[in-house]
Design a protein that fits this description.
This is GST N-terminal domain-containing protein. InterPro entries: Glutathione-S-Trfase_C_sf, Glutathione_S-Trfase, Glutathione_S-Trfase_N, GST_Omega/HSP26, Thioredoxin-like_sf. By secondary structure, the protein is α+β, with helices and mostly antiparallel strands. The chain is built from 10 helices and 4 strands, in the order βαβαββαααααααα. β3 and β4 form a beta hairpin. α1 packs across α6. The longest helix has 25 residues. The relative contact order is 0.12.
């Protein structure tokens, strides 16, 4: 397990939502680490590609071991450094909580957030609103009931859990993109009006300092607008 002599190096970039997960996890655990920023908009350095031939961040160096893929990195950190984020699986209670947390993450992702990805290729404003309908339906039927005991975070917790570590960087982007009209304004409006449990949790998550410290609002908006333009052009919609 962990020791005070562990050396951690995180290759990351704050514009990458996936990499944000590892930053949030390390911040919440409170373990010292060295951060090395990788330019994700250009060719990757050869020494970085030697660590991860996929060229993706995050990459965690734990002593002399290389760990890649954001969820794997975060779960590894939670296993090595026990904290409020995630209980160890050494008891039935801990294993059950981890299973329920994993189910929540999967539900958030598949019943809500992946629906939003369709917005950038929606042909018309009416099509965008239909996608918002689907996203709100996913919250009402699937995600919201899993947040009935949020306090304000998942599982009646008053501190971030691994659930927020994994989905929080995506939550804050959804909130910001709707705020600025990159996603329809109606997304935020309807979440607040129609899904109170989800809204309370999303606001608490997207305003937590461990998450907000990584976010430059104008950068997220500009990069998302550019990405939307590329996707629409590729789909022949511009």
């Amino acid at each position: 397990m962990a020791s005070t002599g562990d050396k951690l190096v995180l290759y990351t970039n704050n514009t990458c939502t996936w990499a944000n997960r590892a930053n949030v996890c390390l911040t919440e655990i409170g373990v010292p680490f060295e951060e090395r920023i990788i330019n994700v908009d250009g060719p990757r350095p050869a020494d970085f590609l030697a660590l991860n031939p996929r060229g993706l961040v995050p990459v965690l160096i734990f002593n002399d071991q290389v760990i890649i893929e954001s969820e794997i990195v975060c779960q590894f950190l939670c296993d090595v450094y026990p904290s409020h984020l995630c209980p160890p699986p050494t008891t039935t209670e801990g294993a059950l909580r981890r299973a329920k947390m994993r189910f929540f993450i999967d539900t958030y992702w598949n019943k809500f957030h992946t629906i939003l990805f369709r917005l950038f290729e929606a042909p018309t404003k009416d099509d965008e609103e239909t996608i918002v309908d689907d996203a709100i339906a996913g919250i009402k039927k699937e995600v919201g009931p899993l947040l009935a005991d949020a306090s304000p975070f998942w599982g009646a917790s008053d501190r971030l859990t691994l659930a927020e570590v994994i989905v929080g960087p995506f939550v804050i982007r959804a909130v910001l993109l709707s705020k600025h009209g990159v996603y329809p304004f109606s997304l935020n409006q309807r979440i607040e009006a129609e899904t109170p449990e989800f809204h309370k949790w999303a606001i608490a998550t997207s305003s937590h300092p461990s998450i907000t410290r990584l976010v430059e609002e104008d950068v997220i908006v500009k990069r998302s607008i550019a990405k939307r333009g590329r996707m629409r052009a590729a789909a022949g919609l511009n």
